[in-house]
Specification:
264 residues, alpha/beta, TIM Barrel, 39% helix, globular, DNase_TatD-rel_CS, metal-binding, TatD-like, hydrolase activity, acting on ester bonds, TatD family deoxyribonuclease
Length: 264
């Protein structure tokens, strides 16, 4: 069974002491590739170095909405310049977070739109962070798609059904994390069950949101296999069938990522 963790944060300090172990456990779980996601453009060198040192790791470039007020000088051209690296496969994560409101909402929106422009120009998928901001995210997606389509992913999806349906309508992908496995996530599992198979992705968002068997512990890419298993159950499929689907979707979405070969 081949899996891809479409969203993790391998530069975070939780992984520094046992980085090789994290990669080994991922490989043993069938995770052939990982995309380590940017939260600060000003720290992109660390992500780039991790990707350059490991064949199985790719990276993105972007400013998390929590950091939007700290990186107001990030431009479309700067994002495009970093995105030209052969192992940079996505823009973001960027978006809106009204739960924490760690940055002013106007800064979040401005940054979001800059990242959308970069995704449109580069053709790389925009990794979208959306929390407690469903209506505004949907509105911006409709408005910006009207200016020209761009690929995107609603990452770590835990929003309402309407936003998921908007994403699919506009050609985007919906990525599920360990939240899907939580006991109280019945509504989320119902949404996942109704989404088309060709728009599903899986992720860990590691080191956060470990799936149910490891809930409260540090999450890591190997655990994406459990999210895949639960997503498969939602669709009445075998885990291996869902793994094949999400891997195919991931390679289509991250179109700059080369095809997988039979040899690991």
């Amino acid at each position: 069974m081949t899996l891809i963790d479409s969203h993790c944060h391998l530069d975070f300090p939780q992984f520094q002491e046992d980085f090789s172990g994290v990669l080994s456990r991922a490989a043993n779980a069938g995770v052939r590739r990982m995309v380590t996601i940017s939260t600060r453009v000003r720290q992109i060198e660390t992500l780039r170095a991790i990707a350059e040192a490991n064949d199985c790791i790719y990276f993105s470039v972007g400013t998390h909405p929590h950091q939007a007020a700290k990186e107001t000088d990030v431009t479309v051209d700067e994002l495009l310049n970093h995105a030209a690296h052969e192992k940079c496969v996505a823009i973001g994560e960027a978006g809106l977070d009204y739960f924490y409101d760690n940055a002013p909402r106007d800064d979040q929106e401005r940054s979001f739109r800059i990242h959308i422009d970069a995704a449109r120009q580069s053709g790389l998928p925009l990794v979208i962070h959306a929390r407690d901001a469903d209506e505004d995210v949907a509105s911006i997606l409709h408005e910006e798609t009207g200016k020209g389509a761009f690929p995107f992913i609603l990452h770590c999806f835990s929003s309402g059904r309407a936003l998921a349906e908007t994403a699919v309508e506009l050609g985007g992908y919906v990525s599920f994390s360990g939240i899907l496995t939580f006991k109280r996530s019945d509504e989320l599992r119902a949404i996942a069950a109704d989404l088309p198979l060709d728009r599903l992705l899986i992720e860990t968002d590691a080191p956060y949101l470990a799936p149910q068997p490891w809930r409260g512990q540090t999450n890591e890419p190997a655990y994406v296999a459990e999210t895949n298993r639960i997503l498969a159950e939602c669709h009445g499929m075998e885990a291996s069938q869902m793994a094949a689907r999400t891997t195919e979707n991931c390679l289509r979405c991250f179109s700059k990522m080369p095809p997988l070969t039979e040899v690991a």
